[in-house]
Amino acid sequence: GDKVKQSPSALSLQEGTNSALRCNFSIAATTVQWFLQNPRGSLINLFYLVPGTKENGRLKSAFDSKESYSTLHIRDAQLEDSGTYFCAGSASSGSWQLIFGSGTQLTVMP
Amino acid sequence: EAAVTQSPRNKVTVTGGNVTLSCRQTNSHNYMYWYRQDTGHGLRLIHYSYGAGNLQIGDVPDGYKATRTTQEDFFLLLELASPSQTSLYFCASSHRDWGYEQYFGPGTRLTVL
């Protein structure tokens, strides 16, 4: 099964609304990264988290290693927030790995 | 912030062709990685390295070789390209191992006809 499961797989929002994306881990993740893949295909680093919370502008992310999940909240969505959001967890399962989820495709509509 | 560059940005080759993808990072990171991204999947690790001359096998290494010539440069080699290797390839680097933040290059889109 998926070691890193993202939900939802796709989401459409009206501009100005809020949303929450979630990442559930079946691995013992110790750190989490969130990325935005823009329409050009580039991966933009959004957050790097040890257990805890970080905020950057309209984005806020939390990582709970005990409950094995992470969330990304988008406030006041803008058109430029459209793209695919990936989370990735690092864990040691024999050897260390960074394991990616399959992504959430977000479309923000005017 | 780490600077990771890749070349070429786009490449088309034929089945059986020989392809080399290049990656350079300029932030003195020790670890470098090659990933591929296909529709319906996140990124999957092909090979990685923790220093010049070192190579470690990732999760999907079949059909790929890699070489880390310097701390800055990491190459991915496809010696007999197949259509199944059509993909978007990303290089990344991090200061130390997996628990550290990874920074990605812009990607190389490879098409094998």
What do these coordinates show?
The complex is a heterodimer of chains A (110) and B (113). Chain A starts with a strand and ends with a strand. Chain A has a single domain, classed as Sandwich (Immunoglobulin-like), CATH 2.60.40. Chain A has no helices and 11 strands. In chain A, 0% of the residues lie in helices and 64% in strands. In chain A, strands 2, 4, 5, 9, 10 and 11 form a 6-stranded mixed beta sheet that branches. Chain A is mainly β and 110 residues long. The model of chain A has no long low-confidence stretch (mean pLDDT 92). By secondary structure, chain B is mostly beta strands. Chain B has a single domain, classed as Sandwich (Immunoglobulin-like). In chain B, the strands form 2 sheets. In chain B, strands 2, 4, 5, 6, 9, 10 and 11 form a 7-stranded mixed beta sheet that branches. A 4-stranded antiparallel beta sheet of chain B has the order 1-3-8-7, with no helix packed on it. The N and C termini of chain B lie far apart (37 Å). Classes of the chains: A mainly beta (110), B mainly beta (113). At the A-B interface, strand 4, strand 5, strand 9 and strand 10 of A face strand 5 and strand 10 of B.
Secondary structure elements and pairings:
The complex is a heterodimer of chains A (110) and B (113).
Chain A: E1 4-7, E2 10-14, E3 19-25, E4 31-37, E5 43-49, E6 52-56, E7 59-64, E8 69-74, E9 83-93, E10 95-100, E11 104-109
Parallel strand pairs in A: 2-11
Antiparallel strand pairs in A: 1-3, 3-8, 4-5, 4-9, 6-7, 7-8, 9-10, 9-11
Chain B: E1 4-7, E2 10-13, E3 19-25, E4 31-37, E5 43-49, E6 56-57, E7 65-68, E8 73-78, E9 87-94, E10 103-104, E11 108-112
Parallel strand pairs in B: 2-11
Antiparallel strand pairs in B: 1-3, 3-8, 4-5, 4-9, 5-6, 7-8, 9-10, 9-11
